[in-house]
Structure formats: structure tokens, C-alpha cells
């Protein structure tokens, strides 16, 4: 595509020169300028298209408007988590309902898209449903590959599954594909105060997926108060 565009520009330049039209030194080639401006428009259109995929509830989610705690220790850990998300590494986020897991995930989604990367959000049940629907028509590998190429993939509600062997194999193989391709994967799961150790999250996402993600990334337990209760004055 780039070679063809360059060839077209060169041909136009040759045509202009034969007609006595020349570009003065220091002056930007008008055709190269047009190509550059078109590519920039296409880049912005692609970014806006990807941002439009964010659900309405999280369209305004950014790192800047995340509600940080007044507790110094919690605030420090929240800021550390945001720095990890901004860095683009793979992370398993787990904690109580309402702590902002999905909100922060979409803040990171926005950042990645604005940096020109492909990003995708889905729930674990949506992934598993795709695999179940494919039975008889496609093999599991082809379904997994549909989600393997994104630069940044967020899989939410990993804890909301039946824990079947097929689900574990699906998640494990997808994470493995992405691990080998050096792609970032974010897993999100709910957990209460009695489930805050890695011993809880490993059975939820599977040991293989867990170890792949934490090898280059990390797992973070979000144990601060619910954002929802705070928002409603509870």
C-alpha cells in the first residue's frame, strides 16, 4: 500500500516536471502533504471508531477522573495500579464489587487506542459463548485466533463461569497465544475479603493463564471500599 502510494506520488511529480512545475527548496511537496494528511485523517477516524466501542457507562473513564481514596496507603496502591496499567503490561485485577476494576480497564483501553494500538473488551462469558456457538462449524483454535491479534485485550468477569474444562482450556489457550505474540492481556475477577490471595485467583483463571500473565506482568488485589457505595453517599 505504501509502495503504491509512493509510486503514484513519483509519477505525479514526473508529470509536473515535464509540464514545468517544480517544488522550490524548503517547500513541502503538495502531493506528499496530501498523502500525509489523508493518513492522519484515517488514523483519527480509526481511533474514534475504536473509542465509540466503549459502553456508554464507561465512555468518560480516564485515569485522571478515577476517584482516588483519601487514605494514604490505599491511594498509594491505587496510583501504583494506574501506573502499571499505563505501562501496558499484562495484569490480573481482582477485588470486591465496585472498586473500579472495569472503570480502570476502560481508562487503559482509551490510552492504548489513543496511542494507535488495537484494543478489545469482552466478558469471559462472551468468549466462552463464541466457542460454544462454533461447535460443529469452526474449531476452537479459529475462534481463539479471532481475539489473539489485538494489541490489548481485556477479559472481564472471569469469575462468572461454570469452571468447565472447555472454559479453562479456552482461556488458557488464548492467553498462551497472546503470551507468545507479546500481546497485553488484562483479566478481571471479583473476589471478597476472604478471597484476596493468589490462591483464590489461580483456580478462577487457571494456573497456566495466571503464570503466563504474571511472568511479564502482575496480579493486583483491589481491597479498597466500593466506589458505588461512596458515590451514593453510603
Explain what you see.
With 234 residues, this protein is an alpha/beta fold. The chain folds into two domains: 1-14 and 29-52, no CATH class; 59-231, Rossmann fold. Helices cover 55% and strands 12% of the residues. The protein has ten helices and five strands, in the order αααβαβααβαβααβα. It has helices at 2-18, 30-51, 72-87, 101-114, 124-134, 140-148, 165-180, 198-205, 207-216, 227-231; strands at 91-95, 119-123, 152-156, 184-190, 218-222. A five-stranded parallel beta sheet has the order 2-3-4-1-5, sandwiched between helices. Helix 7 links the parallel strand 3 (152-156) and strand 4. Helix 5 (124-134) crosses helix 7 (165-180), helix 6 crosses helix 7 and helix 7 packs parallel to helix 9. The longest helix has 22 residues, at 30-51. The chain is globular, with a radius of gyration of 23 Å. The chain starts with a helix and ends with a helix. The model has no long low-confidence stretch (mean pLDDT 83).
Name some characteristics of this structure.
234 residues, 2 domains, alpha/beta, Rossmann fold, single chain, five-stranded parallel sheet, 10 helices
Question: How would you briefly describe this protein structure?
Answer:
With 234 residues, the chain is an alpha/beta fold.
Q: Helix count?
A: 10
* CATH superfamily caption of the largest domain: P-loop containing nucleotide triphosphate hydrolases
Cα-atom Rg, whole angstroms?
A: 23 Å
The helix/strand series, from N terminus to C terminus, equals HHHEHEHHEHEHHEH
Gap from first CA to last CA: 57 Å
Which percent bin holds the helix content?
40-55%
The CATH architecture designation of the largest domain is: 3-Layer(aba) Sandwich
Instruction: Say what the CATH topology of the largest domain is.
Output: Rossmann fold
Tell me, briefly, the overall form. globular
Largest sheet: 5 strands, parallel
User: Averaged pLDDT, please?
Assistant: 83
List how many beta strands DSSP finds: 5
CATH class of the largest domain, please?
A: Alpha Beta
**What share of residues are in beta strands?**
5-15%
Tally of individual domains? 2
- Main sheet: strand order: 2-3-4-1-5
Which regions contain 5 or more consecutive residues with pLDDT less than 50?
Answer: none
Structural class: alpha/beta
